[in-house]
Predict the 3D structure of the following.
Amino acid sequence: MIKKENLDKTSAWPFVEAKKMLRERKSFIEKKGKITLQTGYGPSGLPHIGTFGEVARTTMIVNALKQLTDLKTEIITFSDDMDGLRKVPDNVPKKDLLEKNLHKPLTQVPDPFGKFNSFGEHNNQMLKNFLDDFNFQYNFKSSTELYKSGFFNPSLKIILENYDGIMNIILPTLGKERQKTYCPFLPICPDTGHVLEIPVKEIDKEKSKIIFDNNGKSLEQSIFDGNCKLQWKVDWAMRWYALDIDFEMYGKDLIESAILSTKIIKLIGKKNPSGFAYELFLDEKGEKISKSKGNGITIDQWLKYASPESLSLYMYQNPKRAKKLYKEIVSKTVDEYLDFLEKSKTQDESQLLMNPLWHVHNSDLPKEKMIMSFSMLLNLVETSNADSKELLWKFVKKYKTNISEKNYPIFDKLIGYAIKYFNDVIKIKKKYKKPNKEEKSALEALIETLDKCDDKMKPEDIQTMIYSTGKENGYSENLREWFKLIYEVVFGDENGPRMGFFISFFGVKETKDLILNKIK
């Protein structure tokens, strides 16, 4: 266990949130003898990376709790699969099939993929599959099952008993037209199977029934056993109440809903869970990532190019800052992962608690030494023309004779990722600069400088000689432009590796040939 003084002073956000929850929910948690955290998912579209982020971050809080208390913890992953399908997602087949089943509960909509009994069940299974792939510990719960089994019946009865108070909370937040038709209960139409949003004619609290006005026709429905479901904000509060939730994080776009749900759960007799509002994920254009649009990078894409741990790192960092999610983010995050891993080797306990990888790896950090950065490896993929792990390993071993794949599992995977990432993402965006007469002359001077170097020289000494060559060939006032020239001509990018290190690894002769080939 971590020393108490280090736990007391750390400002790592999972510990901050865990301590806050233990303070706010102290009496409730002690009475239950366990801590229940919830993550919510609406299966109206395929699960996306934001869903993963919510479970990953909640798991990090659970890991912090395990350092702070001996109480049992549980994460409930709740699927709101009784919600009506409001629109057809862009990224699914057989859109006409979904179009015909709009407004039905998601577990009553046929699966366009033809694999499961319903679209909701298909998306639920996808969610469980990728959470299982990451070895998350969670307890999956389906809205449809809890409504239809009667589990929610006692809580639904309490909602009905507090009908007027709930209406007083919700109605002031609605427009005048919506106020006329709003009801916390949404009946499931016995004829069409649609989730109906229709006004109330009469409430029978004694029999737990509501008579609705269905376009002039009376529709009498029991509130129990899945005959009705609740409107979102009331449903959220009821779920907190019925499942005794102690903590839930949610996107910034749901802050308003969380405020209203908090008022409702207090009205029906319980304290609201501890909350944490995170900023949203955006695509490359700065638009919110959407399940129905399928924009932004997917989990499958990320895992094609980088490790699960790098994705968890991305989720850990700055959860209260809006973050863009697109393919170019991956290489930057991988390098940050390697940098944090290297720093962890010399950090004391209090520093490790502030290292994101302590939370990513749940305190069990790998001990592997770093051979090179991911960006450097990408340059090596390009300059060596290696198109397989075996070829690239041979090239690496040529200059690092004392290393073996079995002792470097992280780097071994990194090589495979680098080849895919370079070919899929970087190669198509490369723009090699054709140097003008003066620039070509400066690069020829660099080749002459490298004639004086050999593979036994220290990277720092080679770097110093490159600096001197730039100063002597028109770049004394702006060495950044000198290196930018080298990068654009040799690597087709404005940025590149530290050249001294690259040359010492790639080889002096090989680098000279590379530059000569590019300027020709």
User: Anything to note?
Assistant: The CA atoms of residues 266 and 272 lie 7 Å apart. The longest strand covers residues 34-41. The chain has 25 helices and twelve strands. The chain has a mean pLDDT of 92.
